[in-house]
Structure formats: structure tokens, C-alpha cells
Amino acid sequence: MPPRVGKGRTVLSLLFKRLFAGLLLLWAVSVLIFAGTQILPGDVATAMLGQQATPQAVAKIRADLGLEKPAPVRYAQWLGNAVQGDFGRSYSNRQDIAKSIAPRLKNTLFLAAMAAVIAVPLALGLGILSVLYAGTWVDRTVGLVTLSAISLPEFFAGYLLIAYFSISHFWLPSSATVSDSMPLAQRLIVMALPCMTLVLAVVGHMMRMTRAALLNVMASPYIETAILKGLPARRVVWKHALPNALSPIISVVSLNLAYLIVGVVVVEVIFVYPGMGQYLVDHVSKRDVPVVQAAGLIFAAVYIGLNIVADLLAILANPRLRHPR
Question: What is the pLDDT of residue 48?
Fold first, then answer.
């Protein structure tokens, strides 16, 4: 019983440390986001009214938006409201940002989850297959295909998929415009191309890291002992090597899942998908600072949160990480 209690306390202490570090990092990111939007060239009021606006009209807009207050005061108000889920109103359409972001964030998370359901098992399976046939033509073929997928930028891969599946064969729609009223089957068909693009973007990295982690464990003495005993290669990999390689695999999978959510901007713009990335790009062109700040803070929170989850899962998968030297 005492070791279990001590181990539990260790995990809890590591959890609180990770959470504290994550909150501190998120605060630092919020400072950078706010400062970055403030040092942008130009004036928001002038951009809203046009170049022919009178000084009186510009002054009135700045007063209405609270831009006359000092930057530290505006930052404190913005951060305090953001913590409560209030991101203010959009400059361009005066709509509540939190209400506008909610359905788009749901769409982005759904697309990322759809891509993850395909990419994670595929990457793990290809990594294990590559280890089982290390040094053979199977290993080389898998490595070549995944390296080619990593080398393709997302926008280029997206346009290639559109050219083949939409223009040449008319199998899938090139635009991924979805709505809540759309049936699930139709929604999945419409989202097929952006999902395939995201899968190509992450599956190669996860596969190669899975292969590297497994090969590192396969070089251990206890693995050599299991092989010398005559155990089948598949049993050695699945029962002895894979459990001890879970920690780095979990880390790389979690990082790629974070990328699926944060790095969808280009993919959403290419396929006109109504998610957070498309929403952000639309309002950057309008110099809608509150929307840019809100989207940046949400992306940062999701990325940091998934990294914390990755750290905790890696600690649970590898007991040695609970007792650092």
C-alpha cells in the first residue's frame, strides 16, 4: 500500500506542475498575441471608416471601441473577459465573437477528429509493419511513401487531391461547405478531401517516429533474449517492445493531434471549410483585431492543453518518468 500512495502523490504533483506551467505559458502567449495585434501598422478606426474619414469620426470610433485607453488597461480587460468566455464583439459585423466561434470550433474539432481516427491507426500499423519487415522491400516502400507524404506541403497535396478526385473523376466535391442540417453520411463525403489532406500531413511523421521508437526498444537485451528463446517476431513486437515504446509514441501522436487542430488554417481555406482557420483568415483581411486575438488564444489553449495531456499519458505509460534523476 505505501508505494501506491507515494506513486499517486507523485503523479498528482507532476499533474499540478504541468498545469501550472501550461497556464503560465498560456499567459505568456496571450501577452504576445495582444502585443502583436497592437503593433500592426495602420489604424483600426481608419480601416473601418475608410481613408476619407474625418478626424472627428475616427476619434468617435476609437472612443466607442475603447482604443483610447492605455494598452495595459485594455489587455487586463481583454484577458479578464476572455477567461470568462467573453471575447467581445467583432469590429466588422458587431456580432458576439464567442457565439460566432463556437460552431466553427466544433467544425474544426470534428474535422481533426475524423482525420485522427484514420491517421493514428494507419501510422501505428505502418510503423509496426515496417519494424516487422525491417530492411526488406516492405520497409523501404513504407519509408518512401511516408517520406513523400511528409515532403508535400498541405496546400499542394490539397490541390493534387482536388485535381484527381474532383476535376478528373468527379468522385468527391472540391468544396467542403458543411452545415448542421446536413446528414452525417453526406457530411463525411463532403469532408473527405480535407480529411485526406490532413491525414497525408501527419501520418508520415507519426509512422517514422513509431518505427524509430520500436527499433530503439528492439535493440534492448531483453528483446534479444526473447528472440533467442524462439518467440515469434509479431509476439515480441506486440507483447514486449510496443508497451515499452508507448511513451515516445504517445508524445508524437499527441503533438500531431495538436497540429491537426492548430494547423488546419491552410486546409480550411483551400476547401472553403467553415472552421476556425477560415474564420481567422476572413477577419485578418478585415483587420478585425478582437477576432484574431480570440482565435489565437483558443488555438494556443488547445495546443498547450494537448501537450499537457501528452506529458501525463507519457508519464503514466513509463513509470521511470515519475522518478526523474
Answer: 63
